[in-house]
Amino acid sequence: MRKTFIVALVALLVAGIGGYFGFTFYVGYLARSHVAAVLANLKANGVEATTGEVRYDVFDGRFELRDIALAAPGQGALKVASFLATGVERPSPARLFAKKVEIEGIVFDGPLPLAPEIDASYRAPRIDVTALEIPSATPGAGTAWQVALAFLEQVTADRIAIPESTVSTRAGAGDSRIETDVTHGAVTFERLVDGRFATATIEPSTFTLGGAPQNAGKGSVGRVSAEGVDVGAMLVLLDPERRLAADAFRTVYAAISVDGYEVTTDGGLRQRWKSMALRDLAIRPSAIPAEELFAMGQRLQQLAAQGKEPSPEEAAQIMQLVAGVYDEGLRIGSIVFDGMDGTTPDGGKASLASLKAGPLEGGRFDQIALDKLSGTEADGKTFRVARLFVGGLRPGTMMDLAAEATRDAKALLNWPARLFSVLGTFELDDAEAPTDKGEPVNIDKLSLSWNGETDALPTRIAATLRMTGPTDAVSAADTAFALVPGQAQRVNVAMDVKADWNEGSGTATLDPIYVEVSDAFAVSARLTLNDVDDSVFSAQPDEAIAGAAQVNLGQLVISVTDAGLYDQKLEEAAKEQGIKPAEIRQLFAGFAELLLSETVSERPELGPAVQAFVSFIQKPMSTLALRITPRSEPLPVMTIVETLNGDNPLGVVDELDVEVADTP
């Protein structure tokens, strides 16, 4: 038994000692083999890859790789001075763990991966990674992005820190040449799992701009904080197979905020934001035509480098690609910009309290609100907007329409109803804008809203305007000048319009239609249309036009009040003719009575209305109110329009009954 024990002990010692050296040699061999396999995979994908010494101490848990160099035609070159992993373990056959990883001397020179026409240089003296766990198997075959995505989704890490780094970019040529040099503050990523970081921060950074003289400048970016950063979601866009299969939305940023931004150019432009924030930025990869967008982006950069502009067809294609992303591939919870102020090269100044937008979902921005914009133009004139609100904006639709107009400037004239699909609400409160004459235009309120199907006439419209402005702001050559009281330096303008369609009764009512210009006139009306079915609001132009042809006049009640404009225009006409205002007034009244006398002789029931019209002409500062109905039903509105545009517009009276109405 003693002999057996001694033999066993010797055997154990021999096996242990021999096993130690053998295992150490084998582990080193595995490490070198693993690295060689990775290099072979990269070379198979067109990447020239070399490394220096490979060291692995299994007992110290230390793995070191030096002088890594990767290069590929058209993709630039990456160099890493050293890669050191300590506390290396193998928690399972499929996983490798390192307590700490130190990467030093990172240098990249070449085109940006997603923008090949932009040359970049990146320098990071050191990167520290804590608690890194990676798959032990060699990444499978595929493109560089496919391998990167597959690897990233299997990596976990507690923390990645980049104490300092710089990046420079160069793009364009001639006057479009842009050069940037950025010095980043410390960058930190926390808790990487499934290609997603729980948090990320970038301490304040500075940058300089160069290239063409007009682009020269400098600036700074405050601390950047982000939550829920999904790097894998972006890499999926670069894998065509994975992209097409990814039909659900993925949140790229759960939240991101920037503590200020400022840029100043040598040409005199300065802009500063106090803070910026974004929440819930998500993409649906299958709806984003990444390959086409990258190709068009490269094309634009090539044209810019040559000092050329894209052709109308190319510009239209780009707008339609981006429109599709807005409509189906992008979701945003909210965007907030606070505290902007800036100066333009000509000396103009502007400040903005806040700009808020969101949510964007289904291609529609629920709201975009601008608060407290004010400033001074170069000539010292001031402007301001207390609040501007846009609801239901569809940027994709807007870009689609712009693409059509780029191909054919008259395209929208064929069916202008599509413009109603761009937004649903517009409001402007307490705004002031300068004019060429010096006196400003003040808008107390301007609001527009409508509802309806996409690309069709709206089934409801409401509009309100309250404004004040100088009369000399309207040019004498403008048709609207005839409605401006020249004796008043400023006038108040009020307008209200509301239209609704009642599907049950098949009627459309415009009530009120109201326009008033102080010291000039006021017009109010109520219009009812019958036999209005849903075909009128079809998105198909032919169907909508056919439906509109069946719409009949129900009733129109209109009231016109002279508030001084008529008397003023009479005085102006009298001076030109060298006669008294009363004489020219009687001349107009007599002409009107003569013109309508034949109609009255044939239709005596129109007599009271004609007399009311003549009396209105004879008596300034009075009111005329009339009720107009079809003489025999139905009376298509198209018939009225065609008659008014024909050789005998007064012939429309033959189709109508006109009565004196009560003054509203």
Give your account of this protein's structure.
The protein has 664 residues and is of the alpha+beta class. 27% of the residues lie in helices and 44% in strands. It has a twelve-stranded antiparallel beta barrel with strand order 6-7-10-11-14-15-17-16-13-12-9-8. Helix 6 (312-329) runs antiparallel to helix 7 (395-407) and helix 11 runs antiparallel to helix 12 (607-618). The longest helix has 43 residues, at 2-44. Residues 1-24 have low confidence and may be disordered.
Largest sheet: 12 strands, antiparallel, barrel
Number-wise, the strands total 31
Oligomer: single chain
Widest sheet, order of strands:
6-7-10-11-14-15-17-16-13-12-9-8
Strand content: 35-45%
Shape: elongated
Radius of gyration: 37 Å
- Helical content class: 25-40%
Distance between the termini: 126 Å
Q: Which structural class best describes the helix and strand composition?
A: alpha+beta
Mean pLDDT across every amino acid position: 86
**Which blocks of ≥5 consecutive residues have pLDDT under 50?**
1-24
Number of helices: 13
